[in-house]
Amino acid sequence: MYRPPIRSTAALTTSLVLLAGLVACSSAPSSSAGAPAGSGQVTLTVGDRPSSSDPANRASFDKKVADFQKANPDIKLNPVETIWDATTFQAQAAGGQLPAVLNVPFTEPQGMIARKQVADLTKVLKDDGLLDELNPNVLKIAQDQSGNVFAVPTAAYSIGLIYNRDLFKKAGLDPDKPPATWDEVRAAAKTITQKTGQAGYAQMTTNNTGGWMFTTQTYAFGGSIENEDGSKATFDDAPSKAALQLLHDMKWTDKSMGQAVLYDMDGISKAFAAGKIGMYMAAPDQYRTLVQTNGLKSSAFGIGPMPQQGGDHGTLSGGSVQIVSPNATDAEKAAAIKWIKFCYLNKYVNQDAAVTSAKNGVAAKLPVGTPGLPVVNADQWSTYQGWIKPYVNVPLENFAPYTKVAADQKIIPEPPVKAQEVYAALDPVVQAVLGNPKADIPALLTTAAGTVNAKLGR
């Protein structure tokens, strides 16, 4: 999965690396031929080449470019170091300085579609056959209201509920049936604390993770953080108040959240792996951090879908899509899809690439087969799972509650404008609720909304 540092607005992906193979181009042979016969050679500028300060990844990227051109002699790639940057994108787009193909986060496609800054890829995706292979739930991120497709999702994650199966057993809870609602989360957390003495539930609160997880929880309660165009804060309402009230009651009435309040991703991962926390919100790829980095027994790891409250509202999702310049010719669009497929999706649609990637993962002692939010459809994902089955080294049964639901659970992208600044403004709200039993939740939200609106209005 695509997960840049937490300071980036590109999906607030912290240390997680969900679907990591998606971000690295595959060097396995492509099944593509070159450009259509008679169209002549196509030259395509592609972004996201690592800089010279990152020689290893730059060399790897350049090798993939060379491999692609060898497999597609009618397409010449011109790799450039341009990457998506919220502070420079609009000027680059207006000045015609963007490459033909560029990676952007999930938060961006809808705005780009509205501003006509991306090419309509519907026909070329149909002609290639890739359209039918993509996950229709994830594809909605890249579609307009008519269903036309303007980007190709290449990495995705969705937040779920991570839980300690051992603590569930000690508390007399069924480790194969994690809570499905927030009322059930509250009940399970209280039981875990009473039966084991550990915090039944914990929430991230610092370094923007507090706002990030509050956003996730607000979505699950049926609320939102910004309006559709990102011009106004919308979290000063009933769903957000209900989400915070639940946290308050778990902390101060049930006393099921322990003493620690100031957690970021690293801190909460270490405490969970040490058996001090029963549940917290994160994506499935936390498995690697918890088990390989922090020493949690693999058998103790469990994850379910995001609990909902008052209906099936959905969960926060992040990831990345590939966009194509609106000025691209039909031949250039076709070439772009071949490159995107080869570089980012090949292991999901090409058996040789899948096996090579899995073998490399095993050799590197990395988790292979970690479930997540697939960017390909259910049938293609099942085919891919069959290809890598001999190399899977994670306990798939522990992910089953998540995988049974996550692929179909509604996904909601992060706030479309200044997500990190919004999260920073919301961190103190969550901290106050968990740090003060008399915290005034409506006042905290009203103040934060004013702070956010001032930022959105700049």
TrEMBL record:
Superkingdom field: Bacteria
Q: Which residues form the signal peptide?
A: 1-33
Q: Does the keyword Chloroplast apply?
A: no
Q: Could you tell me which residues belong to the region Disordered?
A: 30-58
Pfam families xref list = SBP_bac_1
Question: Mind telling me which InterPro entries this protein's record contains?
Answer: Bact_solute-bd_prot1, SBP
Compositional bias (Low complexity): 30-40
The reply on keyword Signal is yes
Keywords, ordered alphabetically: Signal
Q: Which protein are we looking at?
A: Extracellular solute-binding protein
